[in-house]
């Protein structure tokens, strides 16, 4: 082919390509920008179908450490994958009993939950120093974080059960690793020291069968959060330790705290001004704790109007109390306005639901001197249950469900109280339904 013919053919091909490009632009590229704008957030998910969540170590002011970050830090230090991490950081925090290990910056470990794989990574970024009013450290700041990565199809599983489990396990690890505290009250405030009592259930000399019964009861209580929530009861439990001086009541409390890893709040009622101050003290107590009132028969006159009116008995009790307590303690006792009802409102009333996983322990040398309201048994609840059963239409299956608490905790009183609560609720619901039906009938009559 001659050069002139080749040039003509090339020009024809070029012209055809230009026409084709123009048609392509008119038919497709003209609408491409709108397509990109509309679907720019969807397209990346097809390329990278993972969700990333970052948990910062501190709040915006870089002062308070995030509770979520602390829980994750504790949780990650316990999972098996953590041991394969090449870079680790070691710290000993205040009130901690052991060395704390965590991932070094830039490390990543894998975790699994219900067959789903999850990745955790640690990192940090440098930011400019916050204003002096918001930060106590001049210069640049290091902002540490944990990053959680998982596939988007598992969003509900990870954001729900998995992270809830991480939070609970992280808090539990923190409680196990911390040093236990012994609190005492001075007026309306608590102060504490590190509790290092050597007593354990292994060192206590007592009937082996009774010891096992107590240990099983305590462990069952500590693991019964879901049960208490299901039956609508406050997560608490009461113990009364009684016997002559020197029989090991205080040692038993120390062993209970050692077994469960609980703090102890030693409540001195004579130092409490009134019921309001008592309530404020008690709502300050933390979960996983034992609230102790020792020698409750001598702490205060909690019987109020319940006391017998026999003057000879009253005079004898008063004489014994004065000899035991002395003039100074009697003056303090008289100054306190704490009442039995104020104490019972926290133990069994509406304030008992303020906080969870707490044991309340009374001790006394003379159990016969206590008001019956403090040591009531469950069997005297049968007459009340009998009346409620006649007034309420509750199926045998529902009755059995409430009584199942006896199987779980081995506590007949708790079971009977649960049944009474359920009967009262059913009775009230039936009353409301009857009133609603009566109003409907009345409206039809009036029409």
Automatic annotation (TrEMBL):
Coiled-coil blocks: none
Q: Which residues form the AAA+ ATPase domain?
A: 235-386
Q: Which GO terms describe its molecular function?
A: ATP binding; ATP hydrolysis activity
Question: A GO BP term, please?
Answer: response to stress
Source domain of life: Eukaryota
- Pfam families cross-referenced by the UniProt entry: AAA_assoc, AAA_lid_At3g28540
Q: Which UniProt keywords apply?
A: Hydrolase
What name does UniProt use for this protein?
AAA-ATPase ASD, mitochondrial-like
Q: Which organism is it from?
A: Juglans regia (English walnut)
């Amino acid at each position: 082919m001659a050069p002139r013919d080749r040039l003509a053919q090339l020009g024809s091909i070029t012209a055809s390509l230009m026409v084709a490009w123009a048609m392509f632009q008119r038919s497709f590229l003209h609408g491409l920008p709108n397509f990109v704008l509309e679907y720019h957030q969807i397209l990346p998910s097809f390329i990278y179908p993972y969700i990333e969540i970052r948990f910062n170590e501190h709040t915006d002011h870089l002062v308070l450490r995030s509770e979520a970050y602390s829980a994750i830090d504790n949780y990650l230090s316990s999972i098996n994958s953590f041991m394969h991490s090449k870079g680790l950081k070691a710290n000993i925090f205040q009130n901690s009993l052991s060395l704390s290990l965590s991932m070094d910056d830039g490390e990543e470990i894998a975790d699994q939950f219900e067959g789903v794989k999850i990745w955790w990574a640690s990192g940090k970024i440098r930011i400019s120093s916050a204003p002096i009013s918001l930060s106590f450290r001049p210069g640049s700041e290091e902002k540490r974080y944990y990053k959680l990565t998982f596939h988007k199809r598992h969003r509900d599983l990870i954001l729900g059960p998995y992270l809830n489990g991480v939070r609970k396990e992280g808090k539990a690890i923190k409680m196990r690793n911390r040093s236990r505290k012994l609190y005492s009250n001075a007026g309306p405030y608590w102060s504490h020291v590190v509790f290092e009592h050597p007593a354990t259930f292994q060192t206590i000399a007592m009937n082996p069968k009774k010891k096992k019964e107590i240990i099983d009861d305590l462990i069952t209580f500590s693991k019964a959060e879901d049960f208490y929530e299901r039956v609508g009861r406050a997560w608490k439990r009461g113990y009364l330790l009684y016997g002559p001086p020197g029989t090991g009541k205080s040692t038993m409390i120390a062993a209970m705290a050692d077994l469960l890893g609980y703090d102890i709040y030693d409540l001195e009622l004579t130092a409490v001004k009134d019921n309001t101050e008592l309530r404020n003290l008690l709502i300050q107590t933390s979960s996983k704790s034992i609230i102790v009132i020792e020698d409750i028969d001598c702490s205060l006159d909690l019987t109020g109007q319940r006391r017998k009116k026999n003057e000879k008995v009253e005079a004898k009790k008063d004489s014994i109390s004065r000899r035991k307590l002395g003039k100074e303690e009697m003056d303090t006792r008289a100054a306190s306005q704490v009442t039995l009802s104020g104490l019972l409102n926290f133990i069994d009333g509406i304030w008992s639901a303020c906080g969870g996983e707490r044991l309340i322990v009374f001790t006394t040398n003379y159990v016969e001197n206590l008001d019956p309201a403090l040591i009531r048994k469950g069997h005297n609840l049968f007459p009340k249950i009998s009346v409620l059963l006649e007034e309420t239409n509750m199926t045998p299956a529902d009755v059995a469900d409430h009584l199942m608490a006896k199987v779980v905790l081995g506590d007949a009183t708790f079971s009977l109280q649960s049944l009474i609560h359920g009967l009262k609720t059913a009775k009230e619901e039936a009353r409301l339904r009857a009133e609603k039906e009566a109003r409907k009938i009345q409206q039809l009559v009036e029409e």
